[in-house]
Hints:
By secondary structure, the protein is an alpha/beta fold.
Amino acid sequence: MSKQNRIKILLDVDTGVDDSLALLYALNKEDVEIVGITTVCGNVEARVAAENTLKILDLVGAPDIPVVCGFEKPLEGEWDGRTAFIHGDNGLGNVELPSGSRTLLEEDVCDFQIRLAQKYEHELVLVTLGPLTNIAMALRLEPRIADQYRPDSCQSPFFCEKD
Length: 163
């Protein structure tokens, strides 16, 4: 499948065990192109989620995909902390992956999400796998991005059948 015909997705994750599997699945879908990944606190801190994401991308030799670290606290209330009883102390079930050569893109998470929504207007599918803090804040800054995502993006590109 040509790169032009692939579904472009922006993943917003809190990379623990579950999001690691979703990331690996998306990376292996021939009809999906991940154009960016943002991280948020949830299963682990946003920074740890970003480090986990970079390690997974390196481990599988994925193409260079920009990863941006997002919000470390929810909009309201307090973050309950890591869910170590499910995801281990490091978010990856205590599996230690080697540190790789990839680095985070140093860009504000809201600016990054807005920029991608505008760059890929009506093509980009937003896939949210963690708390929606990053998305909520981006929408506060630029409410029009909701209309810039792919019109049918309420359906998951992973599980819908093509007509």
